[in-house]
Amino acid sequence: MLERDFNAYVNAILSGNRVVLAQAITLAESQRREDITLAHQIISQLLPHTGKSVRIGITGVPGVGKSTFIDTFGTYLTRQSKKVAVLAVDPSSTKTKGSILGDKTRMENLAKNPHAFIRPTATGTALGGVADRTREAMLLCEAAGFDVIIVETVGVGQSETAVRSMVDFFLLLMLAGAGDELQGIKKGIMEMADALVITKADGENIKAATLARANYQHALHLVSVSDSGWKPKVLTSSALENTGVAETWKIITDYVQFVEASGYFQENRHLQNRNWLYESIQTQLLKTIEQSEKIRNNLERFEKEIASGLRLPSEAARQLINEVFQHSI
Ligand code: GDP
């Protein structure tokens, strides 16, 4: 790696060059060791310029209106002189080639907006890897001057916890009239939310949305107060008619003020970084195991032996880790 390349990336990102920003994210997502090393050097150099955005996670089942809401919400934010980046975590794309979030027609207005940056799903082999890459992309966007980072994920159960663990504020989009089971929303996910937005509150749906709002607000009263001490809010919105959008932003800024005053904002970010470290140790250790054919073969053999009750899992893990150390020397 040339010193010049590295500095060129850093300087271009700091000056807000979106092409280079996108290239740096691609480097971070690469499977090649040299690319990852370069990406890590770039991000490390940029670290003092990160952390200044508001990080928002948005989830909800397919069809709830995520992309339409983010399009309207993001456009609203750019009109408030904010620069907005949208990143997606899509658990479906790690299992199949298909993607629930990846199609190009989503967020048409935002895609054309010079103050917005949309990055489709990170590629990776496991959700842990995808989450790591999204965190890195988030830091790169912050260094490039984005004030609001939206991390979008599909509410199908696997990725919400990962997204919750990398954002400051978690927004759950819900449909009025559909039962919770129908929406695939587990109670645990509702408990992670800092706000619930009932979508498509327009036309004949307004009444149902207003009723749903009251019901969810009541249900949330029964949920114990979260670590932040914040009481989750419920509101209705129509992305098509641009209602509830400014209100959503107001709730988010109220939240940020609340947790900055209590010290939770920084405390939570420190905790998130600490957890990121431990998760990375796990994912990188597993990756090292998978990369060595010999160790991988042993892993497969151990799995079979464990399944037939012939080997102790903790002993197998210790042996594999010993092999990793021998392998890397
Ligand atoms: P996603 O799968 O969660 O990203 O959902 P989409 O944003 O693609 O929206 C799914 C469908 O709901 C589309 O047909 C949208 O036009 C429609 N939709 C989204 N937002 C609204 C809204 O505010 N009002 C109404 N009436 N329809 C909406």
Describe the structure.
- With 329 residues, the protein is an alpha/beta fold.
- The protein has 3 domains: 1-49, Single alpha-helices involved in coiled-coils or other helix-helix interfaces (Up-down Bundle), CATH 1.20.5.170; 51-261, P-loop containing nucleotide triphosphate hydrolases (Rossmann fold), CATH 3.40.50.300; 274-328, no CATH class.
- It is built from 14 helices and 7 strands.
- It has helices at 3-14, 18-29, 33-46, 66-79, 92-95, 108-112, 127-143, 160-164, 187-192, 206-222, 245-262, 264-291, 293-307, 313-328; strands at 54-60, 84-89, 116-119, 148-154, 169-175, 195-199, 233-236.
- A 7-stranded parallel β-sheet has the order 3-2-4-1-5-6-7, sandwiched between helices.
- Helix 9 links the parallel strand 5 and strand 6.
- Helix 13 (293-307) runs antiparallel to helix 14.
- The radius of gyration is 21 Å and the shape is globular.
- The two termini are 23 Å apart.
- 37% of the residues are buried.
- Guanosine-5'-diphosphate (GDP) is lined by residues 60, 62-68, 199-200, 202, 238-240.
In short:
Strand 6, helix 10 and strand 7 (233-236) form a beta-alpha-beta unit.
What is the count of distinct domains?
A: 3
Q: On the 0-100 scale, what is the average pLDDT?
A: 88
Helix proportion: 55-70%
Tertiary shape = globular
Counting H and I runs of at least 4 residues, what is the number of helices?
A: 14
